[in-house]
Amino acid sequence: MPKTGRQPESAQPGELLSQLADEGETGTLYVDGVPGGTVHLIDGRVSYVESPAAPGVGTLFTASGRLAERTWRAAVEAGGADHRVGPLLVEQGHLMQSELELCVLAAIYDAAFFVLTPDAVPVRFAPGELHWLGRVVEVEVAALERETSRRRRVLDEILPELSVDHAPVTPVRRPPVQRVVLTAAQWELVVHADGRRTAADLSHLLGRPGYATLQELRRLSAAGLLRDTMEPDPPSSGGESSGEPSAVDIRSAEPPPAGGDKSSISTTAAIRRQGGPRRPRHAAPQPGSPDGAGSLPATPDDAFLDRVRAALKALR
Amino acid sequence: MADMDTALKEAMNIDGAVGVAIVDYSSGMALGIAGGGKDFDLNVAAAGNTDVVRAKMRTMEMLHLNEEIEDILITLDTQYHLIRPLTGRSSKGLFLYLALHKDRANLALARHHMRRIEADLEI
């Protein structure tokens, strides 16, 4: 990555973005952290945003069947160097201007939700660096910020808990109710949640916006139908629960997010969870779950289990 | 080759149009708006009407009505509100929202226009 611009600094991405917008800058803002991403500015307005947690326009168009994979790749090859892939697709008659605009707008707001975290993270601005998509739409930074915080609020209204946002998810083995009604979108998520895929994996796989995926996962989690893979199924008869540490215990020991600034608390927690014990949690086996065992590595990580047990004992 | 603003402006030319929005109904966000004003916030209307569409879809599922919604009409004292889910491959999950003055609008014509605008938004 070129280091032409300002040195990396730690800042709230939204704040820095507002400054860059006020100065009418053109270039790319790199945002580190989890999931992180890039914000692309043209004359102080946002022309595109990318994040690993949100499928880009290419995925959205090809997954919906609107564009053939081949068509998309050819356009990226032909127009990428000149930063005009979007306009090229319209000129060649593959897309209408309006549908391109709609899709790019949706992708911008979707990725912005993940990139514009309320936390300070390492950021770097590369002036003059353009995105290959080119100029399709322009969004004001303030509008992006407003919408992002509105989305955070809506998400927390569904379920103010982020266990399914970043971790691999899995459907529960026994639904907590007699009768389950799912929408088509929820069904697809349940079918593809194999205990290894995270929300981001699922949205890329299904070509669904990342935010819409989070919403559905939180709804399913609120209904008790889906859970963070490493969180054991609630014991059906209270049988084996005695010595086994459970993710639920750990979480409920955390203070619940307080009314005012929910979003920032949730995000810090998310980053902590993602960055910290993620790998060992992947490797840890599911105690006593023959159904789930197939999708998990067979070798138990004893050292990690011991650590969790010790931590839980200390909590008591 | 209509861009989105043109399509929206065209919608505002419909007799009696007060405001129009293209709304993403998973997030409740208006991707584009035209018209509206101080006493009629289209962004708020967009978010709220998302719940209307979702409720109607859920009801149809419960009734086992295996049909698509062409449009939803809400009649107020002085206004009509028309909601039209878009069906194109890349615009699935979006709906058009149009508010009309009741005494100046021709409902049949407005519905006809909405259909044309949808065609303008996608091939």
From TrEMBL, chain A:
Residue span, PatA-like N-terminal domain: 12-151
Ranges where the record places region Disordered: 227-302
InterPro entries associated with the record: PatA-like_N
Biased composition (Low complexity): 236-246
Protein name, per record: PatA-like N-terminal domain-containing protein
Organism: Planosporangium flavigriseum
Automatic annotation (TrEMBL), chain B:
Superkingdom per UniProt: Bacteria
Name assigned to this protein: Roadblock/LC7 domain-containing protein
